[in-house]
């Protein structure tokens, strides 16, 4: 299984704050993804990247942005957090089609 | 748009009973993957099917890919409490995108 790291694992923050969720991988995979998932619910793709300097928006409309300056890192930024952003954010990496997920960041916006 | 559906949404079984979840796509898929997510955890890749009519087994789990490459199934024989979780299928479309199904949540009553 790929080594994928997400920090922080848990975050409680007030409305209006800017936050960055970190995702890093050590496998050298070109493809990386960000998903939003409420407990027990389906995965919603919010951003993906197929390589350095390549980023695309997913199917779920999101107020977040991403960057892919290095293969290893794919950070997700929320410029102004809102209570509706409360959810779990999962990062995944892929060498082809199968995806390997990180442990996730549980975000609570008060 | 292209969709991947799963049925049932929820399934409660007595320990020892069999369980099957079905995955259906509106279009032909290049391949299909299956994932398992334990409660509180992240999705974990189980298997990928590529060929029409392909059948693969992992211990008590049997995975099938339909002849038309539009549907797939996961069958668990003699469920155990360790099988509890949500099972997701994900299909690769002709547009080279991987689309996740909404998942089937399995509960096992001891």
Task: Give a written overview of the molecule.
- The complex is a heterodimer of chains A (110) and B (110).
- With 110 residues, chain A is an all-beta fold.
- In chain A, 0% of the residues lie in helices and 50% in strands.
- Chain A contains no helices and eleven strands.
- Chain A has strands at 4-7, 10-13, 19-25, 31-37, 44-51, 54-57, 64-66, 76-78, 87-94, 100-101, 105-109.
- In chain A, a hairpin with a 6-residue loop joins strand 4 (31-37) and strand 5 (44-51).
- The radius of gyration of chain A is 13 Å and the shape is globular.
- Chain A starts with a strand and ends with a strand.
- The model of chain A has no long low-confidence stretch (mean pLDDT 94).
- In chain B, 0% of the residues lie in helices and 55% in strands.
- Chain B has no helices and eleven strands.
- In chain B, strands 2, 4, 5, 9, 10 and 11 form a six-stranded mixed sheet that branches. A five-stranded antiparallel sheet of chain B has the order 1-3-8-7-6, with no helix packed on it.
- Chain B starts with a strand and ends with a strand.
- The interface between A and B is medium-sized, with 17 and 21 residues.
- Oligomer kind: heterodimer
What shape does the CA trace of chain A take? Answer: globular
Strand content of chain B: over 45%
Order of helices and strands of chain A: EEEEEEEEEEE
What structural class should be given to the helix and strand makeup of chain B? mainly beta
What are its keywords?
heterodimer, A: 110 residues, mainly beta, B: mainly beta, 6-stranded mixed β-sheet, 5-stranded antiparallel β-sheet, 0% helix
Quick take:
With 110 residues, chain A is an all-beta fold. Chain A is built from no helices and eleven strands.
Question: Layout of SSEs?
Answer:
The complex is a heterodimer of chains A (110) and B (110).
Chain A: E1 4-7, E2 10-13, E3 19-25, E4 31-37, E5 44-51, E6 54-57, E7 64-66, E8 76-78, E9 87-94, E10 100-101, E11 105-109
Parallel strand pairs in A: 2-11
Antiparallel strand pairs in A: 1-3, 3-8, 4-5, 4-9, 5-6, 7-8, 9-10, 9-11
Chain B: E1 4-7, E2 10-14, E3 19-25, E4 31-37, E5 44-49, E6 55-58, E7 61-65, E8 71-76, E9 85-92, E10 98-100, E11 104-109
Parallel strand pairs in B: 2-11
Antiparallel strand pairs in B: 1-3, 3-8, 4-5, 4-9, 6-7, 7-8, 9-10, 9-11
